[in-house]
Design a protein that fits this description.
Elements: H1 3-27, H2 36-43, H3 55-83, H4 86-99, H5 114-120, E1 127-131, E2 137-143, E3 148-153, E4 158-163, E5 169-173, E6 179-184, E7 189-194, E8 199-204, E9 210-215, E10 219-224, E11 229-234, E12 239-244, E13 250-254, E14 261-266, E15 271-276, E16 282-287, E17 293-298, E18 304-309, E19 314-319, E20 324-329, E21 335-340, E22 345-351, E23 356-361, E24 366-370, H6 371-375, E25 381-382
Parallel strand pairs: 21-25
Antiparallel strand pairs: 1-24, 2-3, 3-4, 4-5, 6-7, 7-8, 8-9, 10-11, 11-12, 12-13, 14-15, 15-16, 16-17, 18-19, 19-20, 20-21, 22-23, 23-24
Helix pairs in contact: 1-3
Length: 386
């Protein structure tokens, strides 16, 4: 069947319906004009009685008649186009000659804005400055169960607790020495490194008291595993050292990482990742069993002072000197900057439960960044306070 036949049949059917409606309106008793008195009389009748006339139905027919006629007109027009498709192409060709071929341009105003990306992801915000006045903020840890971040103030020799939803802060412990890093075990104890004193300390978060676990010369970065061990990076000697927390026993995992190694992160599968602030901004992968290590990537011109893992094959690190947050693929070392404007950043922590990245800096600021925003459309870009 051709399109011509289809449109002809559609027009014929609409015409038949129109004629039937006209005949019904003409031959049915009660059709036509009815006085207002008759309509009023019928409206007062018992609704359960059968009426001799149905004026509501006639009103509907009056509405349908024009529709049937419109359907006929449309079918005729469609048939004309099907018989002569050149008429459509001729019109399109004339339009093209007059206005030229269509052009697509994308300006800077058309690009997605940070606030639009945030709304599309359904999140409250992509980033926020949640606290200030935290001193020379060096190390950083977060406890999602308490909705609290712990910020080490290297200049003030103290540890502060910050509620990440309100920004409220309080000093948790003081007199902790030259704090290089901090990690919490989720059971009320924080572990801090004292760089100048060459110590690993345990801090009771309830009382603020502290005690020495072990002597580790040049202790800077620290990470905790689930078996009761701490892994400490020696800034001075380029070593990764494991410390048994109950008794302070130590063993050297690997050497030769070079001076200036900083942050440590564990993947829970036998690998540690160590960032190097000095010497080219390297990220090392260390086998905790065999002690071998390799360079995952080098960040040209960066000071890779901290490392955090998201559990999905990505590492995050901060560039201390340039105030940048990097995302690194552990499989191949691919890297990109996802945020800038973070100041002289020195603390990094991930809350993988709620999807937040926390960054602290020497200006005493604590930033909160949405991890989804860091992954989408090139990252959150330049971070500014608001």
């Amino acid at each position: 069947m051709s399109f011509k036949n289809i449109f002809e049949n559609g027009g014929d059917e609409a015409g038949s319906a129109d004629k039937a409606a006209q005949a019904l309106g003409k031959d049915t008793p009660g059709a036509g004009d009815v006085s207002e008195a008759v309509r009023k009389l019928e409206s007062e009748r018992d609704p359960w009685l059968v009426r001799q006339t149905a004026h509501g139905a006639f009103d509907v027919m009056g509405f349908l008649n024009p529709l049937f006629r419109n359907a006929q007109d449309v079918a005729a027009a469609q048939r004309q186009v099907s018989e002569d498709p050149g008429s459509t192409s001729t019109m399109a060709s004339a339009t093209t000659k007059t206005f030229g071929p269509p052009k697509v341009t994308i300006s800077a105003e058309d690009m997605p804005k940070l606030e639009d990306v945030s709304r599309l992801m359904g999140t409250r915000r992509s980033y926020a400055l949640i606290a200030t006045g935290l001193g020379t903020s060096e190390g950083l840890a977060v406890d999602p169960s308490l909705n609290t971040a712990y910020v080490a103030d290297r200049g003030g020799l103290k540890l502060s607790a910050v509620k990440v939803d309100t920004g409220a802060q309080r000093a948790t412990a003081s007199g902790l020495g030259d704090i290089g890093d901090v990690k919490v075990d989720g059971q009320g104890t924080a572990y801090c490194t004292d760089y100048s004193g060459g110590r690993l300390l345990a801090v009771d978060l309830a009382s603020g008291s502290s005690r020495k676990i072990a002597d580790v010369p040049g202790a800077y970065g620290v990470a905790l595993d689930a078996a009761g061990r701490a892994y400490v990076a020696s800034w001075l000697h380029g070593q990764l050292i494991a410390v048994d927390l109950p008794d302070g026993q130590k063993r050297t995992i690997t050497t030769g990482l070079g001076k200036g190694i900083g942050g440590v992160a564990l993947d829970g599968k036998g690998k540690a990742y160590v960032g190097q602030k000095d010497g080219g901004g390297k990220l090392y992968e260390v086998d905790l069993v065999g002690g071998t290590h390799r360079v995952v990537t080098s960040l040209a011109g960066a000071s890779t002072v901290r490392v955090a893992l998201d559990g999905a094959g990505r590492a995050y690190t901060i560039d201390h000197a340039n105030g940048r947050l990097y995302e690194i693929a552990l499989a191949d070392g691919a890297q990109r900057v996802v945020a800038t404007g973070l100041g002289t950043c020195a603390g990094l922590a991930l809350d993988t439960v709620s999807g937040w990245i926390y960054v602290s800096n020497y200006e005493g600021q604590l930033w909160q960044i949405n991890s989804q925003a860091a992954q989408a459309l090139g990252g959150v870009g330049k971070v500014v306070a608001y």
